[in-house]
Every structure is written in structure tokens, then in C-alpha cells.
Design brief:
307 residues; mainly alpha; MetI-like fold; 2 domains; 2 strands; flat
């Protein structure tokens, strides 16, 4: 078990380092000069251009810039945003709770309704319930989140003024963004849960348990669901990454504060340090989530830890 844990931990560390390099390099491929963008009408002054370039560290070699930035990032210092006149760490601290709230709410909706829909479809395989359930899942998967968000706003905030939308961080303002973010992943989870349960139902030990006269509830909980949970846990871990990336669109559509909206604003303003920090944090959270899923595997199937 210890060897399994160390292997997965090393993989996460290497992945985080690789992500930091990619983020650092890709940001610098964006057209335009960030110093001139920051200075605006003062960009015609060579002295100001030189001073701000030096303050941002853009006059140093790329390798030096990366080492300094990544070393400070490990200590929680992501630099200073000259666009907002605040430290990047304070911007992230102010926006992260709203994104975390939205992601967890969407994840709860996605897992609950996706598992319920997929389980019903698997247990009623090749019936009208299966057909309708998978049809609903396909519709959910096909709807773009930006269009769905606008549709929900028009229906439940304009035509029927039931929910708050613009800039809302209350529970009332969380409903529509969470539903918008969750609906697409509900379809994915439902289809995957269905296929996992069907595959687990055909295994030899399930057939043997059924032949021994075990009740349907015990058969499903002890033998089918437990074996189906391994691939389902993988999908749920991946869905967290999809939900985090989806907040970029949803928070923009609903004018909701969060890391997604912060990222969009930083990209438009060519705020390098903020963009680097937000992308790095989202990527690391995604990697850590999958690391936790990897640690969950041996609990579901002890044979994995011995491989």
C-alpha cells in the first residue's frame, strides 16, 4: 500500500511541475505586449516601459522568470496584479470560495441524479425506462452550457422571477448556475453508471450469488454496486475537472464572482500573473482530485494495491 501511495504521489508532483511549465510558456505566446497594455496611454514613455518591465521581471531570461515565479508560487506568492492593483493571492482567496461552492453544488447534483438515472436504466434494461432515461442523458450531454444558462435565466429569472441571477452568491443565486453546470455531466454519469452496472451484473460471482437465492437488494448492494463503483469513481474524479473548467463559462454567463470569471477578465487584460496562477490552481486541484480517487481504488478493490 505504501509503495502504491508513493507512486501516485510522485506522479502528481511531476504532473504539477509539467503543468506549471506549460502554463508559463503558453501564456507568453499570447499576442501583444502586457507592459504596453497595462500602461495604456502612458505606453509612449520609454522610462515607464522599462521600469514596469523590470518590475514584472520580463527583462530576465525565461528560465530565470520561471524559477522565480514557481518558487514563489510554492510559498503561496503568485505575484502582483498591476491591472487590479492587488496581489494575485488575495484575488484568488476572494474568488475561490464562490467557485468551490458552485463546483460542489453541481457535483452533488450530477452524482445524485446521474447515478439515479443510470441505475434505473440499468435495472430496467431494454425497456421504455431505459430508452427514455438514456434519451434524457443524451439531450443533457448535447446542450451547450452557455445556451442552457441563458435559457434558464429567461425562464426562471425573467419570465418566472423565482431565482436571483446577476452576481448572486447566495443560495438563491446558486440554483440556476449549479443546474447549468451539472446538467451536462448528469448525462455522462448516467450513461457510465448504466454500462458499469450492466457489466458488473454479468460477472460469474453475481450469477452464483443469484443462484443461491440472495435477495435482489443484497445482490445489488453487495455484489453489483461495489464492483461497479471502481469505474464510476474514475468518472466522478474526471467530472470535477470538467466542472472546474465549466465554471469559466457559467460564471461569465451569470455574472457570478469566481475563479472562472477572474480568469476571463485576466485574459482580456493580459494579466499574465493572474492567468498563470488561476490555471495552475485549477490544474493542480484536478490532479489532486484524481490522486484521491487513486487512493480510493484499493479500498474498493484491495487487489490494486498489490499490483
Amino acid at each position: 500500500m505504501l509503495q502504491y501511495f508513493l507512486k501516485r504521489l510522485l506522479a502528481v508532483v511531476l504532473l504539477a511541475c509539467g503543468i506549471s511549465v506549460l502554463v508559463f510558456m503558453l501564456i507568453r505566446l499570447i499576442p501583444g505586449d502586457p507592459v504596453r497594455t497595462l500602461l495604456g496611454t502612458n505606453a509612449g514613455s520609454p522610462e515607464m516601459l522599462e521600469r514596469l518591465t523590470r518590475q514584472l521581471g520580463l527583462d530576465q531570461p525565461l528560465l530565470t522568470q520561471y524559477v522565480l515565479w514557481f518558487g514563489n508560487a510554492l510559498q503561496g506568492d503568485f505575484g502582483y496584479s498591476f491591472v487590479t492593483q492587488r496581489s494575485v493571492s488575495s484575488l484568488i482567496a476572494a474568488n475561490f470560495p464562490a467557485t468551490l461552492q458552485l463546483t460542489l453544488a453541481a457535483l452533488a447534483l450530477s452524482v445524485f441524479f446521474g447515478t439515479l438515472l443510470g441505475t434505473l436504466a440499468a435495472l430496467r434494461r431494454k425497456t421504455i425506462t431505459d430508452t427514455v432515461g438514456m434519451g434524457i442523458a443524451l439531450v443533457f450531454m448535447s446542450i451547450p452550457s452557455f445556451w442552457l444558462g441563458l435559457l434558464l435565466i429567461l425562464t426562471f429569472a425573467v419570465t418566472l422571477p423565482w431565482f436571483q441571477v446577476a452576481g448572486g452568491t447566495s443560495w438563491d443565486g446558486l440554483v440556476l448556475p449549479a443546474c447549468t453546470l451539472a446538467l451536462g455531466t448528469i448525462g455522462i454519469n448516467a450513461r457510465f453508471v448504466r454500462s458499469s452496472i450492466i457489466a458488473a451484473s454479468g460477472q460469474a460471482h453475481v450469477v452464483t450469488a443469484r443462484a443461491k437465492g440472495i435477495t435482489r437488494v443484497q445482490l445489488f448492494v453487495r455484489h453489483i454496486l461495489r464492483n461497479a463503483m471502481l469505474p464510476i469513481a474514475t468518472v466522478i474524479g474526471l467530472q470535477i475537472g470538467n466542472l472546474l473548467s465549466g465554471t469559466v463559462i457559467v460564471e461569465t454567463v451569470f455574472s457570478r464572482p469566481g475563479l472562472g470569471r477572474l480568469l476571463v477578465d485576466a485574459i482580456l487584460a493580459k494579466d499574465y500573473l493572474t492567468v498563470q496562477a488561476v490555471v495552475l490552481i485549477i490544474s493542480v486541484i484536478f490532479a489532486l482530485t484524481n490522486f484521491l480517487v487513486d487512493l480510493l481504488y484499493p479500498m474498493l478493490d484491495p487487489r490494486i494495491a498489490r499490483r
